[in-house]
Amino acid sequence: GENVEQHPSTLSVQEGDSAVIKCTYSDSASNYFPWYKQELGKGPQLIIDIRSNVGEKKDQRIAVTLNKTAKHFSLHITETQPEDSAVYFCAATPRDDKIIFGKGTRLHILP
Amino acid sequence: DTGVSQDPRHKITKRGQNVTFRCDPISEHNRLYWYRQTLGQGPEFLTYFQNEAQLEKSRLLSDRFSAERPKGSFSTLEIQRTEQGDSAMYLCASSKLAGVYNEQFFGPGTRLTVL
Predict the structure, then answer these.
(1) Contact, B56 vs B31, CB < 8 A?
(2) How large is the C-alpha radius of gyration of chain B?
(3) Cβ neighbours of B99 (radius 10 Å)
(4) Is residue A30 within 8 Å of residue A93, measured between CB atoms?
(5) Are the beta carbons of B42 and A49 separated by less than 8 Å?
(6) What percent of chain A has pLDDT over 70?
(7) pLDDT tens digits, residue range B33-74?
(8) Chain A residue closest to B98 (CA)?
Protein backbone atom coordinates (compact mmCIF):
# COMPACT_ATOMS: atom_id res chain seq x y z
CA GLY A 1 0.00 0.00 0.00
CA GLU A 2 0.88 3.65 -0.13
CA ASN A 3 3.47 4.99 2.30
CA VAL A 4 4.12 8.70 2.82
CA GLU A 5 7.32 9.91 4.46
CA GLN A 6 7.54 13.48 5.74
CA HIS A 7 10.53 15.55 6.88
CA PRO A 8 11.41 17.25 9.09
CA SER A 9 9.30 16.26 12.08
CA THR A 10 9.98 19.64 13.71
CA LEU A 11 10.92 22.93 12.08
CA SER A 12 11.68 26.29 13.67
CA VAL A 13 12.05 29.39 11.54
CA GLN A 14 12.33 33.09 12.27
CA GLU A 15 9.25 35.12 11.54
CA GLY A 16 9.51 36.42 8.00
CA ASP A 17 11.73 33.58 6.79
CA SER A 18 10.63 30.69 4.57
CA ALA A 19 9.73 27.17 5.65
CA VAL A 20 10.01 24.06 3.50
CA ILE A 21 8.52 20.64 4.25
CA LYS A 22 9.33 17.66 2.05
CA CYS A 23 7.48 14.43 1.44
CA THR A 24 7.92 11.27 -0.57
CA TYR A 25 5.36 8.66 -1.54
CA SER A 26 5.63 5.10 -2.76
CA ASP A 27 2.55 4.32 -4.86
CA SER A 28 2.84 5.59 -8.43
CA ALA A 29 -0.96 5.38 -8.69
CA SER A 30 -1.33 8.32 -6.30
CA ASN A 31 -2.62 11.28 -8.25
CA TYR A 32 -3.79 13.82 -5.69
CA PHE A 33 -1.64 15.38 -2.97
CA PRO A 34 -3.37 17.54 -0.35
CA TRP A 35 -1.64 19.43 2.44
CA TYR A 36 -3.38 19.91 5.77
CA LYS A 37 -2.76 22.27 8.68
CA GLN A 38 -3.81 21.17 12.13
CA GLU A 39 -4.01 23.54 15.06
CA LEU A 40 -4.27 22.41 18.65
CA GLY A 41 -7.63 20.87 19.45
CA LYS A 42 -8.87 21.05 15.88
CA GLY A 43 -9.23 18.72 12.94
CA PRO A 44 -6.95 19.00 9.90
CA GLN A 45 -7.83 21.75 7.44
CA LEU A 46 -6.90 21.67 3.78
CA ILE A 47 -4.58 24.54 2.88
CA ILE A 48 -3.53 23.62 -0.64
CA ASP A 49 -3.50 20.63 -2.94
CA ILE A 50 -1.86 19.57 -6.17
CA ARG A 51 -2.90 17.10 -8.80
CA SER A 52 -0.61 14.79 -10.70
CA ASN A 53 -0.90 16.64 -13.98
CA VAL A 54 0.55 19.81 -12.44
CA GLY A 55 4.14 20.43 -11.31
CA GLU A 56 3.61 23.51 -9.18
CA LYS A 57 0.79 25.47 -7.59
CA LYS A 58 0.83 28.70 -5.63
CA ASP A 59 -1.68 30.39 -3.38
CA GLN A 60 -0.44 33.65 -1.87
CA ARG A 61 2.38 32.73 0.55
CA ILE A 62 1.99 28.98 0.06
CA ALA A 63 3.32 26.94 -2.84
CA VAL A 64 3.53 23.22 -3.53
CA THR A 65 5.72 21.39 -6.01
CA LEU A 66 5.38 17.85 -7.30
CA ASN A 67 7.95 15.64 -9.01
CA LYS A 68 6.10 12.52 -10.12
CA THR A 69 9.18 10.85 -11.51
CA ALA A 70 10.98 11.04 -8.19
CA LYS A 71 7.76 10.70 -6.17
CA HIS A 72 8.62 13.84 -4.22
CA PHE A 73 6.41 16.75 -3.26
CA SER A 74 7.00 19.72 -1.02
CA LEU A 75 5.34 22.66 0.69
CA HIS A 76 6.88 26.12 0.74
CA ILE A 77 5.64 28.87 3.04
CA THR A 78 7.18 32.30 2.47
CA GLU A 79 7.18 35.35 4.75
CA THR A 80 6.14 33.21 7.71
CA GLN A 81 3.87 34.71 10.35
CA PRO A 82 3.08 33.67 13.95
CA GLU A 83 -0.27 32.23 12.86
CA ASP A 84 1.57 29.77 10.63
CA SER A 85 2.64 27.87 13.76
CA ALA A 86 0.85 24.51 13.62
CA VAL A 87 1.33 20.89 12.56
CA TYR A 88 1.39 20.35 8.81
CA PHE A 89 0.57 17.05 7.13
CA CYS A 90 1.31 16.02 3.60
CA ALA A 91 -0.83 13.29 2.10
CA ALA A 92 -1.27 11.17 -0.98
CA THR A 93 -4.41 9.67 -2.43
CA PRO A 94 -3.81 6.35 -4.21
CA ARG A 95 -7.54 6.00 -4.74
CA ASP A 96 -10.42 8.38 -4.48
CA ASP A 97 -11.66 6.96 -1.22
CA LYS A 98 -8.84 7.39 1.29
CA ILE A 99 -6.04 9.74 2.22
CA ILE A 100 -2.67 8.43 3.36
CA PHE A 101 -1.05 10.98 5.66
CA GLY A 102 2.56 11.61 6.57
CA LYS A 103 3.49 11.80 10.23
CA GLY A 104 3.40 15.58 10.32
CA THR A 105 5.77 18.50 10.78
CA ARG A 106 5.45 20.74 13.80
CA LEU A 107 6.27 24.26 12.59
CA HIS A 108 7.33 26.88 15.13
CA ILE A 109 7.56 30.51 14.04
CA LEU A 110 10.04 32.30 16.26
CA PRO A 111 9.55 36.01 17.06
CA ASP B 1 -21.87 26.48 11.25
CA THR B 2 -22.16 24.22 8.24
CA GLY B 3 -18.96 22.21 8.75
CA VAL B 4 -18.52 18.64 9.95
CA SER B 5 -19.51 18.27 13.59
CA GLN B 6 -18.60 15.54 16.06
CA ASP B 7 -19.99 14.66 19.43
CA PRO B 8 -18.75 14.38 22.08
CA ARG B 9 -15.51 16.35 21.79
CA HIS B 10 -13.96 14.48 24.71
CA LYS B 11 -14.72 11.12 26.26
CA ILE B 12 -13.07 9.52 29.26
CA THR B 13 -13.99 5.93 29.96
CA LYS B 14 -12.77 2.95 31.92
CA ARG B 15 -11.26 -0.06 30.22
CA GLY B 16 -13.91 -2.55 29.21
CA GLN B 17 -16.68 -0.01 28.73
CA ASN B 18 -18.42 0.65 25.41
CA VAL B 19 -18.36 4.09 23.80
CA THR B 20 -20.19 5.61 20.84
CA PHE B 21 -19.26 8.68 18.86
CA ARG B 22 -21.39 10.62 16.43
CA CYS B 23 -20.45 12.49 13.26
CA ASP B 24 -22.68 14.86 11.31
CA PRO B 25 -21.24 15.52 7.85
CA ILE B 26 -21.69 18.57 5.70
CA SER B 27 -25.16 18.56 4.23
CA GLU B 28 -25.36 16.79 0.85
CA HIS B 29 -21.95 15.17 1.26
CA ASN B 30 -22.49 11.57 0.27
CA ARG B 31 -19.14 10.25 1.47
CA LEU B 32 -18.19 9.99 5.14
CA TYR B 33 -14.85 8.81 6.52
CA TRP B 34 -13.52 7.84 9.93
CA TYR B 35 -9.85 8.25 10.84
CA ARG B 36 -7.89 7.66 14.03
CA GLN B 37 -5.04 9.90 15.11
CA THR B 38 -2.62 9.06 17.91
CA LEU B 39 -0.23 11.55 19.48
CA GLY B 40 2.50 12.66 17.12
CA GLN B 41 1.09 10.79 14.15
CA GLY B 42 -0.96 11.61 11.11
CA PRO B 43 -4.55 10.45 10.84
CA GLU B 44 -5.00 6.81 9.82
CA PHE B 45 -7.92 5.67 7.70
CA LEU B 46 -10.44 3.40 9.45
CA THR B 47 -13.48 3.14 7.20
CA TYR B 48 -15.70 5.04 4.83
CA PHE B 49 -19.29 5.17 3.63
CA GLN B 50 -20.86 6.21 0.39
CA ASN B 51 -24.38 7.13 1.33
CA GLU B 52 -25.43 4.34 3.72
CA ALA B 53 -23.11 1.69 2.32
CA GLN B 54 -19.88 0.94 4.15
CA LEU B 55 -17.45 0.36 1.31
CA GLU B 56 -14.13 -0.31 2.99
CA LYS B 57 -12.75 -1.12 6.41
CA SER B 58 -9.11 -0.88 7.37
CA ARG B 59 -7.29 -3.73 9.08
CA LEU B 60 -6.96 -1.26 11.97
CA LEU B 61 -10.67 -1.68 12.58
CA SER B 62 -10.84 -4.68 14.88
CA ASP B 63 -14.02 -6.65 15.60
CA ARG B 64 -14.62 -4.40 18.61
CA PHE B 65 -15.21 -1.46 16.29
CA SER B 66 -18.40 -0.94 14.33
CA ALA B 67 -19.57 2.00 12.27
CA GLU B 68 -22.97 2.77 10.84
CA ARG B 69 -24.57 5.37 8.66
CA PRO B 70 -28.17 4.18 8.66
CA LYS B 71 -29.84 6.90 6.61
CA GLY B 72 -26.87 8.16 4.66
CA SER B 73 -26.60 11.25 6.83
CA PHE B 74 -24.96 11.10 10.28
CA SER B 75 -22.69 8.23 11.29
CA THR B 76 -21.82 6.53 14.56
CA LEU B 77 -18.62 4.77 15.55
CA GLU B 78 -18.90 2.33 18.44
CA ILE B 79 -16.03 0.75 20.30
CA GLN B 80 -16.89 -2.21 22.49
CA ARG B 81 -14.82 -3.40 25.45
CA THR B 82 -12.44 -0.47 25.18
CA GLU B 83 -8.73 -0.99 25.75
CA GLN B 84 -6.07 1.52 26.71
CA GLY B 85 -4.66 1.26 23.19
CA ASP B 86 -7.90 2.72 21.86
CA SER B 87 -7.00 6.09 23.37
CA ALA B 88 -6.73 8.46 20.42
CA MET B 89 -8.43 11.27 18.53
CA TYR B 90 -11.20 9.94 16.28
CA LEU B 91 -11.72 12.17 13.27
CA CYS B 92 -14.62 12.23 10.88
CA ALA B 93 -14.49 13.74 7.40
CA SER B 94 -16.96 14.11 4.59
CA SER B 95 -16.80 14.79 0.88
CA LYS B 96 -19.13 15.22 -2.04
CA LEU B 97 -18.56 12.75 -4.82
CA ALA B 98 -18.38 15.11 -7.75
CA GLY B 99 -15.36 14.12 -9.80
CA VAL B 100 -12.00 12.48 -9.70
CA TYR B 101 -10.64 14.49 -6.75
CA ASN B 102 -12.96 14.99 -3.84
CA GLU B 103 -11.77 17.25 -1.04
CA GLN B 104 -12.34 15.82 2.40
CA PHE B 105 -13.48 18.22 5.11
CA PHE B 106 -12.59 17.20 8.65
CA GLY B 107 -14.47 17.67 11.87
CA PRO B 108 -12.84 18.72 15.17
CA GLY B 109 -12.53 15.14 16.38
CA THR B 110 -13.49 13.21 19.50
CA ARG B 111 -10.63 12.66 21.92
CA LEU B 112 -11.00 9.31 23.69
CA THR B 113 -9.09 8.51 26.87
CA VAL B 114 -9.34 4.97 28.21
CA LEU B 115 -8.23 4.62 31.82
Answers:
(1) no
(2) 13
(3) 7
(4) yes
(5) no
(6) 99
(7) 999 999 989 999 999 999 999 998 888 888 999 999 998 899
(8) A96
